[in-house]
Design goal:
Blueprint: H1 28-32, H2 35-44, E1 47-51, E2 57-61, H3 64-72, E3 76-77, H4 114-123, H5 128-150, E4 154-156, H6 157-162, H7 164-174, H8 181-193, H9 202-222, H10 228-240, H11 244-274, H12 277-288, H13 291-307, E5 317-319, E6 323-325, E7 328-330, E8 335-338, H14 340-343, H15 378-395, E9 400-401, E10 423-425
Parallel strand pairs: 2-8
Antiparallel strand pairs: 1-2, 3-5, 4-10, 5-8, 6-7, 9-10
Helix pairs in contact: 5-7, 5-15, 7-8, 7-11, 8-9, 9-11, 11-13, 11-15, 12-13, 13-15
């Protein structure tokens, strides 16, 4: 492993995207498989200044030790106010539309003490007890979605399974009434399509969601329930000083950050298992044996998070002051992107990092971050991942890709990593619920 202090004399800043031999970044080929380029960066330019497709320039941090340091360094702020955006890149370092919709005061954009206060309020929804209590609902949703396509013998596992499962789960957690959840599903779909047509556009969906959340907060104030939004309102009423904008922003970011990460965990996870049949076979055999299967499923989800995780880069950070990271001088105001996907395949931290090993034990991956901004919803996402993958493998044991690998497309974008579609085939009769199979 690296020495995480990295205290040696800094080199001169490398602020050119044209280092000799540097692979092309951010192309469609890169989106399909960024790992060779990240391997090159780790070796030759581990803290690398480059221009992003949006026009914003930023540092990419690719080594594991540097990534852990950066994720926990208080000198790297989450607040965009520390970055003087160029006029031609205004608003390109956050979620489109969140500023206009007054949804900026969420956990991904703030530092302590506000971050500490808001995280404390919402963390009550993600205690081990609350997550465990939610498990039967996740199983119910999972089985219901599989029921809808099991008889056909084919499905697109992104749009018919990986996408709706976390949407409906997080809607239940927030307290969105069942009759409104399909609207949320539509808005979320607009977010991940990133389109500009009549049904696309992140900013448009953010605006619609903001209007709905304002209305829902008012309804919950009149008729509270045992849900997260009601809990935020009760906390505000008891002197926690949570404004309506903060409550709406909190609900928004839990949906925005909570659903797409789980979509990609399930989608990327299924894809990895289908393209690594030996590991998939080991897991399926273990699942038949009960406890051994659950143990391998638990370590397996962690390995899938490391191997090809749902979050390619941690969300934006901005240098409050000049600092040195990985031997590079970072100027005050510089944007910094920690490349989790690169760090989690660093051979100085992981043995055989390019190999998928579902039984890997020494696996302190950074798939959900590190430090005070560690993903708050990680326990729920892990639960959804275990239930989704375990149920698919039990109910559809001969699951297989329905297209050539070359036909699959990965969504563009900096932060998230996920497939656009995942067409699969299976024997229709294999869709019977495990609980319904005669012993």
């Amino acid at each position: 492993m690296h020495d995480e202090s990295r205290t040696g004399p800094p080199s001169a800043p490398v602020r050119s995207p044209e280092l000799s031999g540097c692979p092309e970044l951010f192309s469609w080929e890169f989106a399909a498989d960024p790992y060779p380029a990240y391997s090159w960066l780790r070796e030759h330019a581990p803290v690398f200044w480059t221009r992003l497709p949006s026009g914003v320039e930023a540092w990419l941090v690719t080594r594991y030790a540097d990534a852990r340091v950066a994720l926990a360094d208080g000198r790297l702020s989450k607040n965009p106010a520390h970055h003087d955006e160029p006029a031609d890149a205004r608003g390109r370092t956050g979620i489109p539309g969140e500023r206009k919709a007054e949804l900026m005061t969420h956990l991904l954009n703030i530092d302590p003490p506000d971050h500490t206060r808001l995280r404390r309020l919402v963390s009550k929804a993600f205690t081990p007890r609350r997550v465990a209590e939610f498990a039967p609902r996740v199983q119910e949703l999972t089985d219901g979605l599989i029921d809808a396509f099991a008889v056909r013998g084919e499905a697109d596992l992104i749009h018919e399974f990986a996408f709706p499962l976390p949407i409906y789960a997080v809607c239940d957690l927030l307290g969105v009434p069942r009759e409104d959840q399909d609207d949320f599903r539509d808005w979320a779909g607009m977010m991940i399509r990133h389109g500009k047509g009549p049904r696309g556009g992140v900013a448009r969906s953010v605006k619609k969601m903001r209007g709905y959340l304002a209305e829902l907060i008012h309804r919950k104030r009149e008729d509270p329930g045992d849900d997260l939004i009601s809990g935020l309102i009760r906390a505000s009423d008891h002197g926690e000083h949570l404004t309506e904008n903060e409550a709406a922003a909190m609900a928004f970011i839990l949906l925005f950050a909570g659903f797409e990460t789980t979509v990609n965990l399930i989608g990327n996870g299924v894809f990895a298992l289908l393209t690594h049949p030996e590991q998939r076979g080991l897991l399926q055999s273990a699942l038949v044996s009960g406890d051994a299967g659950e143990a391998l499923l638990e370590t397996g989800v962690e390995e899938l998070l490391r191997f090809d995780g749902p979050v390619e880069m941690a969300t934006w950070r901005f240098a409050r002051e000049p600092l040195v990271l990985g031997g590079q001088r970072i100027a005050a105001g510089d944007p910094v992107l920690v490349v989790l996907a690169a760090a989690d395949r660093d051979p100085e931290r992981f043995e055989g990092p390019e190999l998928l090993d579902l039984a890997r034990v020494d696996n302190q991956h950074l798939g959900y971050g590190h430090g005070i901004h560690y993903c708050l919803g990680a326990p729920l996402a892990r639960l959804e991942g275990r239930v989704a993958l375990g149920t698919l493998l039990r109910r559809l044991p001969d699951l297989r890709l329905a297209v050539d690998l070359s036909d699959l497309r990965w969504r563009g974008g900096l932060i998230m990593r996920g497939l656009r579609t995942l067409p699969v085939e299976f024997t229709p009769s294999a869709g019977q619920r495990v609980s319904d199979v005669p012993s």
